[in-house]
Amino acid sequence: MGSATGTKSQTRTVWQKIARRVRVPLGFVVAAVFLVFAHPSWHTLAWSLLLVLPGLWLRGYAAGYVKKNAELTRTGPYAYTRNPLYLGSMGIAAGFAVAAGQLWLGLLLVVLFLAIYVPTILSEESFLRGEFPSFDEYARRVPRLLPRLTAARFTDADVRGGRFAAERYRHHREYNALMGAAAIYAALTLRMILKH
Predict the structure, then answer these.
(1) Exposure string (b/e) for 125-164, b if CB count within 10 Å is 16 or more?
(2) Where are the domains of the chain?
(3) Would you give the distance in Å from CA 26 to the centre of its chain?
(4) What is the pLDDT of residues 30-53, one digit of tens each?
(5) If you ran DSSP here, which 8-state letter would residue 79 be given?
(6) Measured between alpha carbons, how far is 65 from 104 in angstroms, rounded to an integer?
C-alpha cells in the first residue's frame, strides 16, 4: 500500500514537472491550431471581448502585485483567489474559444487547461507551502481558483504594504499577453476579410 502511494506521488510529481515545462511551447502550438481551424465572425469576435478583456485586465492587475518567489502575495486580486493569473488566462482562452466559433476548439482548450494548468498549480502550491509558513492559513481562507466575493483580510505587516506597482507589471512582461491577444484578433480579422 505504501509503495503504491509513493509511486502515484512520484508519477504526479513527474507530470507536474512536465506540465510546467511544456505549457508555454504548447500554448504556441495551440494558438497555431486555433488560427488554422477557427471560423470567426464579427459576432463571435464581439462576444469574445466580454471574456478576453476582463481576462487581460485580471492578469495585468495580478502581475502588478506579485513578487514571484520573494513573498507570499495576499493583496489585490490574491485576496480573492490564489491564482488570478491562471483565472485571467482561463478567461482569455474561453474568449478565444467563443471567437473561434468552433465548439471542439473550446473543448480542446478545456482539456489542455486541465492537463497542463492543474498540475502546474499543484506544483506551485507545493513550492509555496515549503517556502512560506503562512501558506496553509492563506490557502484555508482564499480559494484556489474561483474567487471569493469579498477580499480575505490579513493583518501581517508584509501584507499591509502590498499595492499595485506598474514596474512589477513591466518586470513580469505582462504586456506580452495584451500584444498576443491583439495579434490573434488581427489574424482572425484578416482571415475573415480575406475569405469574403
Answers:
(1) eeebeeeeeebeebeeebeeeebeeeebebeeeebeebee
(2) 2-195
(3) 14
(4) 778 888 889 999 999 999 999 999
(5) G
(6) 35
